[in-house]
Amino acid sequence: MAIDRRDKGLFSGAIFQQGAPMGWQEYLDTHQNRFVAELQDLVRIPSVSAKPEHMPDVVAAGEWVVARLRAAGAENVALYPTQGHPVVYGDWLHAGEDKPTVLLYGHFDVQPAEPLDLWQTPPFAAELRDGRIYGRGASDDKGGMMAPILAAEALLQTTGRLPVNVKFFFEGQEEIGSPTLAPFVKDNAALLRADMIISADGGQWSETEANLLMGLKGLVGCEITVTGANADLHSGMHGGGVANPLHGLSQIIAALKGADGRINVPGFYDDVVELTVEDRQAIARVPFDQEAYIAQLGVPDVFGEEGYSVRENLWARPTLELNGIWGGYQGGGIKTVLPSEARAKITCRLVANQTPDQIYALLAAHIHSLCPKGLRVAVERLPGSANPFLVPRGHNGTAAVAEVLSALYGKAPYEVRTGGSIPVMSLLLQELGVHGAVMAFGLNDENIHAPNEFYRLSSYRKSQTAYCMLLERLGQG
Ligand code: BES
Ligand code: MN
Ligand code: MN
Known about the structure:
By secondary structure, the chain is of the alpha+beta class. It has helices spanning 6-9, 23-30, 32-43, 55-72, 138-159, 181-187, 189-192, 235-238, 245-256, 277-285, 290-297, 310-316, 356-369, 396-409, 423-432, 457-475; strands at 75-80, 87-92, 101-107, 127-129, 132-134, 165-171, 196-199, 211-213, 215-216, 218-227, 233-234, 319-326, 337-338, 341-350, 376-381, 389-390, 414-416, 436-438, 454-456. The chain has a six-stranded mixed β-sheet, sandwiched between helices. A four-stranded antiparallel β-sheet has the order 12-14-10-15. Strand 1 and strand 2 (87-92) form a beta hairpin. The longest helix has 22 residues, at 138-159. The site of one manganese (II) ion (MN) has 5 residues, from helix 5.
């Protein structure tokens, strides 16, 4: 592949001038073709955590990561079982006690590839096209999680050591909300203990401008089942005599959110920390072109909670979304039936200080209270959840990431948030008391979770440089 020579120019920059070896850059350039082939290998493993039939593939991806980490020079590398999908741990702890210990995170599980017919090349073929690698998980997060591994290899191979103590922690269940990660983290707190966490899962602003991710939302979800008669009924024989579960479900759902975008679940906003003037100013400082956003999505207009900007709603206000609704007859022609049941899935994105337990309790109670006459309603919590996570301003890790991004892009990063979630960030904070920052290089046009996901080889190369720089920066104290 073409070598990105621009990276090398960085080392004329003031911050990294003294003592920055050129060796690892050359190592990364020299071995880039192999690194790309390795990412293709990893993308070819269909490690879809949501699907039981892919459980062996998630294990295979974990084993692949174990082998790759060992080859990079990490020690104590192992695949650890959990009550669900496994995790990978490895470390290199010889930098000295005066150096910080940095935990580097990523995930090797991927979203389901469906709908398959919309992919131009098969999702697990990992085809190279136009300087990009196409495949499910190429961007989210297999391309991302390779960066810390390759950076460590390059530093170890060229300098014989790492500038800081490093722990690698990769999981195989992020895309399903890390349902069995909490007990693993609790039981292995000593193993995972670190001074800071850097996530290689997340994203970047553009090819030429950087962002610093300051906030992630939390998540909780439920499935609603509304039942009526014990079997589907003839709508002429029973319509007008008993309630229809699909109507009942529709009434419940319609009651959950107003035309003003407010969520009408009593208590839903009680724990929400209102945005401060500074928060709103920080969000407003980030460029946003509403017309371009509308055009890009192909929607007739934006819609969200009144009183907040689109960006505030996207990044910093809680949401409730219906993800699926089904029941009744959906074939051709007419079928005069009252279906016996109707179902829906709902997820809420949470902000500080909402918690999944609290919001689920409020939501379930409210849905039960809305049960229409003549019907039964059941609510079940969906597995997987996340607490909201705010990156603290002025934290060492955040500052180091900001410095590296500034040097790498020649400009200070935008301070952004996302409506996305990474459950492990709040989990590690809660269980270890350790704060995290994010440094990742996926771009938002890379179709993550959608057909034709891809990762730019230029981002891949840049991410390797960035992680070498970050470890060096952290080693300077
Ligand atoms: N990498 C994403 C989260 C993300 C997206 C961070 C965009 C920053 C920018 C992650 O893999 C993801 O998709 N998380 C899920 C978690 C959920 C299942 C708990 C999400 O946000 O839907
Ligand atoms: Mn991800
Ligand atoms: Mn994802």
